[in-house]
Specification:
The chain has 290 residues and is an alpha+beta fold. Helix content is 16%, strand content 42%. It has six helices and 17 strands. Strands 1-2-3-7-6-5-4 form a seven-stranded antiparallel beta sheet, with helices on one face. A seven-stranded antiparallel beta sheet has the order 10-11-12-16-15-14-13. The chain has a three-stranded antiparallel beta sheet with strand order 8-9-17, with no helix packed on it. Strand 1 and strand 2 form a beta hairpin. It is elongated, with a radius of gyration of 24 Å.
């Protein structure tokens, strides 16, 4: 439904067709692991809001949840509150990243969420902000290298793109749907420069088809910067010098999932190049969970 913020402070919301179903928020704790005080203020805010709206509010601070198991987290507090809906709320502190984490799961009064609540809440994990970062969205999972920060993203059902940057180096991960339709009348090496031409327009690219053990296709991509002399032939202003970057990447298909995946690394110095192969090894299609 919505993604906001950045690693230090942000949130994500998941909706169904009628209501908000889950909200996850995180906030830099700055060494303060006290959760109870934040919960107190949160409940005070709920009470004031209910009073303004002249609505009923019931809070159960001593709520227990069988099967709740979060060994990574500290000061875990679970409670629920009821108004028009029942909202199951978890607040905790993560020593791994020094962040406060909040999860809210909303249910209707005629729903029984006792079985699904532990499944959702026990899936809450955290990672060191300085280490590799795990990502899972729509039907793709991947891991970005340590030190690379998310610079931009596209979240569409047909195309997911994550763009990471570190200094002058860039790593881009793409997932496209309908692979069988896209490649029905063209080969992977013909389709790649058409679709990704904008990313590599200042780079001489070479392709090499890789052998696979099944019917899937794989294309190794390498590239070197085009001559600066060609830039002088472009329309002014010619002082807008384009970055001279090298390219290393791979594009491959997963026909069982009907997806095309691509990982591309753009770099200036070989010693600073992202470990593209390590990233490729983490990219995979994932089945929607029910």
């Amino acid at each position: 439904g919505k993604i906001t913020g950045e690693p230090n402070n942000g949130g994500v919301r998941l909706d169904d067709a009628q209501i908000v179903r889950l909200e996850l928020e995180w906030k830099d704790a700055r060494g303060d692991d006290r959760v109870e005080q934040i919960v107190d203020r949160y409940i005070e805010g709920l009470a004031k809001n209910a009073e303004k709206q002249k609505s009923k509010l019931k809070v159960e601070r001593s709520a227990e949840l069988n099967g709740l198991d979060l060994p990574q987290m500290q000061n875990v507090t679970f409670f629920n509150w009821q108004s028009n809906f029942i909202v199951y709320t978890l607040a905790c502190y993560s020593p791994i990243s020094d962040r406060l984490l909040f999860v809210r799961i909303m249910g209707r009064h005629d729903e029984n969420l006792e079985e699904i609540l532990p499944r959702i809440l026990n899936s809450l994990i955290d990672t060191d902000p300085e280490g590799p970062q795990s990502w899972a969205l729509y039907d793709m999972a991947c891991t970005s290298p340590a030190g690379y920060q998310l610079e931009s993203f596209e979240l569409k059902s047909g195309h997911v793109r994550l763009k990471f940057e570190q200094d002058n180096n860039t790593l881009i991960i793409d997932r496209l749907g309908l692979a069988k339709t896209i490649l029905a009348n063209k080969t992977l090496d013909k389709w790649y420069p058409e679709f990704f031409g904008k990313d590599s327009r200042h780079i001489h690219t070479d392709f090499k088809t890789e052998e696979t053990e099944d019917t899937n296709l794989a294309l190794k991509v390498t590239g070197r910067p085009k001559s600066r002399w060609r830039g002088l032939l472009q329309p002014l202003p010619f002082w807008n010098m384009r970055p001279r970057q090298h390219l290393t990447g791979q594009v491959w298909t997963d026909f069982e999932a009907n997806k095309i995946f691509a990982v591309q690394g753009f770099w200036k110095k070989q010693e600073d190049a992202p470990d593209v192969q390590a990233c490729i090894d983490t990219v995979r299609a994932v089945e929607p969970q029910t």
